[in-house]
Write a structure and sequence with these properties.
The complex is a heterodimer of chains A (397) and B (261). Chain A is an alpha/beta fold and 397 residues long. Chain A is built from 9 helices and 22 strands. In chain A, strands 11-15-10-5-8-9-16 form a 7-stranded parallel sheet, with helices on both faces. In chain A, helix 4 crosses helix 5 and helix 6 packs parallel to helix 9. In chain A, 53% of the residues are buried. In chain B, strand 3 and strand 4 form a beta hairpin. Chain B is of the alpha/beta class. Chain B is globular and about 70 Å long. Classes of the chains: A alpha/beta (397), B alpha/beta (261). At the A-B interface, helix 4, helix 5, strand 11, strand 13 and strand 14 of A face strand 3, strand 4, helix 3, helix 4 and strand 9 of B.
Chain lengths: 397, 261
């Protein structure tokens, strides 16, 4: 299946070949030619100056009645009796989507003894909370959570589901989507509604963050997506709001659970908890060697922040991967992100560009990071950082 | 131990640049590589084989040129390779891809462990591995950094936001592997020569049992609606100072202004 090129209309301008993100268009005998890489994304359709390119009419293999599916759901993750913030962030944006779609907003709460958390969901905009409780849900488990969530979907048929793109969310999402034959978009950084078609518009970075793709799920239901933490702001809770709790009995049998959690090892001190940090000080190749990360650590400590690292620094073995910020590392969205000796490769920006304030320190005045920085200092990090630490100590004393 | 490692041939996205004039992706000269996370999965498979014996088979779905990626895996030490390739699979999203791969793996039949990279660097979805496990109805653990096997019990460490989880399960199982798991080995000269001579079997849609409604574009719930280049943020303020200390002081004043300190 590929896009269709009308060879008679094609003028051989090759505008489409560079517009194709998949390298699926080539010039042959002065005419555009489609190869196997084509995903029928349609990025080329609009750039053709003579309208020689069209998408094929295609009948989907979907076998659902879309009219049966109504409501926007948000999966609420929790740990140690607290909701993770990403769930509340998604309730905020879920409210926006539900209003645009003219549907209700509900939260899904699965756990052991978690009913008390429902009030947080109501305060953040949910009208309904689907609650599944049981000992088997005390800690996240792929099999138990997949079964509980899929049962809810099959019984109550939501149109759209938002899940945080956390380690557990990205474990649960594909399993549930596959069991319910739903469309799932990974790791979204923006959500909107295509009001004309009544579809959620899921936007995410692709090709290592080099381009953005807006994705839709036109024929299958539910339409699902995992969404990065920190891209939406938590709504102000309004505890005067209440809603309906729909308690659903657990159907998971012990033999359904095929993996067993035997231990949880917490290595996450405040200096590594990047997802929750309000301030992050991050080091890159410009730190020159692992010893110099002591400046990053000291500054982070003085500011009460966490320590991050670019892929270059992690690949060089200067910092463990748990500190890595970027497309293949963690996505962060602190109030202040201080990038030290980081060039600002697109892969890195994909993980931190939603930070409120970005401060960049780099020797190279042309470094890409300065294009995204709120404040920039052109200078050697190994001089600026010790000076900052010094002066901060004076201020604090 | 029968181990299947699923790999993907991807453009090296670290080499992809945006044309500053046309604002489009410049793919010319971007090398095709084995997805880096998949190499960690293969390395884990090879180490398990060295420790417990068995066989490592690499499987990929992709166009004919993906054979090059499979050959690199053979050169690293995999015992066998299989390419799943058919024009009918084109345009597949993660659901259709995982279905097709699962049907191929089901045809191979005899497996204890399926290893996948945590995610591919071109799509970064991390969805094909878990969806395959669901199609095959087997247990899975994602983001695995360590794996050992004792008396048929698989014990793994799973990387998590706050640290690690230690999880146990039984064969058959699917694991997705993170970068910190290991340092993938380089192909040997001998391995490369052997791999170059290897004939890689290709399975088409006719060779595996597939429902035509579940493959390719037709079996893909998600569709790309628009592609665009990310906007850069509005230009910020460059701090001009004569010395590093002056610059540091100005910055600290800004931080104080924001009531951070």
């Amino acid at each position: 299946m590929a896009i269709i090129i009308d060879k008679d209309t094609c003028i051989g301008c090759s505008a489409c070949t560079s517009a194709c993100p998949f390298g699926a268009l080539e010039m042959q005998d002065d005419k555009a030619q489609v190869n196997d890489n084509c995903t029928t994304c349609g990025a080329c359709v609009g750039v053709c100056p003579v309208s020689a390119i069209s998408k094929p009419a295609m009948k989907s293999g979907a076998k659902v009645n879309k009219e049966d599916y109504k409501g926007v759901w948000v999966f609420l993750e929790h740990a140690e009796g607290q909701l993770r913030s990403v769930g509340l962030e998604l309730l905020g944006q879920g409210r926006v989507l539900a209003d645009k779609l003219g549907e209700e907003l509900a939260a899904v709460l699965i756990g052991d003894n978690v009913e008390g958390l429902a009030k947080e969901a109501f305060a953040s905009g949910a009208e309904k909370v689907y609650l599944v409780e049981g000992k088997e849900y005390a800690h996240y488990n792929t099999d138990a959570y997949t079964t509980a969530f899929s049962d809810l979907i099959n019984s109550y048929k939501p149109s759209s589901i938002l899940i945080g793109a956390t380690t557990d969310g990205r474990d649960l999402g594909p399993r549930v989507a596959c069991r319910t034959t739903a469309g799932l978009v990974a790791d979204c950084t923006n959500l909107d509604v295509d009001t004309e078609r009544g579809l959620v518009l899921w936007t995410r970075p692709a090709f290592g963050g080099n381009i953005m793709a807006s994705i839709v799920c036109p024929d299958y239901r539910p339409q699902m997506g995992t969404v990065r933490p920190k891209v939406f702001k938590k709504p102000e809770p309004d505890y005067s709001k209440t809603g309906e709790i729909v308690r659903v009995a657990s159907k998971v049998k012990p033999e359904d659970i095929r993996t067993k959690l035997v231990d949880v090892i917490k290595v996450c001190t405040t200096s590594v908890n990047l997802e929750e940090a309000e301030i992050i000080v991050s080091g890159g190749r410009g730190m020159c060697n692992p010893d110099n990360f002591k400046y990053i650590e000291e500054l982070a400590d003085l500011l009460g922040g966490a320590v991050g690292a670019s892929r270059a620094a992690v690949d060089a073995g200067w910092k463990p991967a748990i500190h890595q910020v970027g497309q293949t590392g963690k996505t962060v969205g602190p109030k202040i992100y201080i990038a030290c000796g980081i060039s600002g490769a697109i892969q890195h920006l994909a993980g931190m560009s939603t930070s409120d304030i970005i401060i960049a320190i780099n020797k190279d005045a042309d470094a890409n990071i300065f294009k995204f920085a709120t404040y920039g200092i052109v200078g050697d990090v190994l001089e600026v950082l010790p000076a900052m630490i010094d002066e901060l100590k004076k201020v604090k004393a | 131990m029968e181990i299947i490692v699923c790999i993907k041939q991807v453009p090296d996205t670290t080499e992809v640049k945006i044309d500053p004039v046309t604002n489009t992706l410049m793919r010319q000269g971007v090398p095709s590589i084995v997805n880096p996370f998949d190499k960690n999965a293969l390395e884990m498979g090879l180490q398990l084989k060295e420790q417990y014996g068995g066989k490592v088979t690499v499987v990929s779905m992709g166009p004919p040129q993906a054979k090059d990626a499979l050959k690199e895996c053979l050169a690293m030490g995999a015992d066998a390779a299989l390419l799943v390739s058919d024009r009918a699979f084109g345009g597949a999203d993660t659901l259709a891809t995982s279905y097709t791969l699962a049907q191929a793996v089901a045809k191979i039949g005899n497996y204890d462990l399926i290893l996948c990279g945590k995610q591919a660097i071109d799509g970064d979805t991390a969805q094909v591995g878990p969806s395959m496990a669901e199609h095959l109805d087997i247990a899975m653990v994602t983001c695995v950094s360590k794996c050992e096997v004792n008396d048929g019990v698989v014990k793994v460490e799973r990387e998590h936001e706050e640290g690690y989880e230690v999880i146990e399960g039984k064969f058959p199982m699917l694991l997705t592997v993170v970068k910190s798991a290991n340092e993938p080995r380089f192909p040997t000269v001998r391995g490369t020569m052997k791999a170059n001579r290897a004939e890689i079997p290709v399975w088409t849609a006719a060779d595996i049992t597939v429902d035509p409604d579940k493959i390719g574009l037709k079996g893909s719930p998600t569709q790309v609606s628009r592609i665009f280049t990310p906007e850069s943020r509005t230009q910020g303020e460059m701090i001009q100072a004569d010395s590093a200390r002056d610059a540091a002081n100005i910055l600290i004043q800004k931080l104080q202004g924001m009531k951070v300190i």
